[in-house]
Amino acid sequence: MTQKYRGFTLVELMVVIAIIGVLAAVAVPQYAQYTRKAAYTEIKYAAAPIKQAVEMCYQRNGGPAVGSVTNFCNTLQTTGARGGITQKQLDRAAAATLVQSVTLAVNGTNNPRITVTPNPNSANANGILAADVYELTGTNNGGAISIWTESGAGCDNGYC
Residue 63's pLDDT is what? Predict the structure, then answer.
């Protein structure tokens, strides 16, 4: 009489476990990078209202051809007169959970630079450090900001 085999052999089970182990070794780091990149979008979005405010300031005031408009639009103002950027706007942009601060400065070529510093103390930081700053630098093109360039340690780590 012949005997029927039921179930899997030990070798077959070990092969399946090995395949699952290889897949997990590849998938887990990719998933971690994906979640950090997804969380970093909150940091990138914090720069959006300031970027828009700087662009509007340039359009309202005619760009750098009008006296000190370049410095006016690239630095903080005490009031929002003439479309200048105020500290209150920066504080609102930094109200996101993963954002510690948003600053506006001028780089060496008198172009606006928005810097967003992540908040590593947030419970949802997902491995994002305070050193993973996000910088957005505008390029003045004849009185308007036409090009914005992303940079910073966060972009260097592949989050942008």
Answer: 56
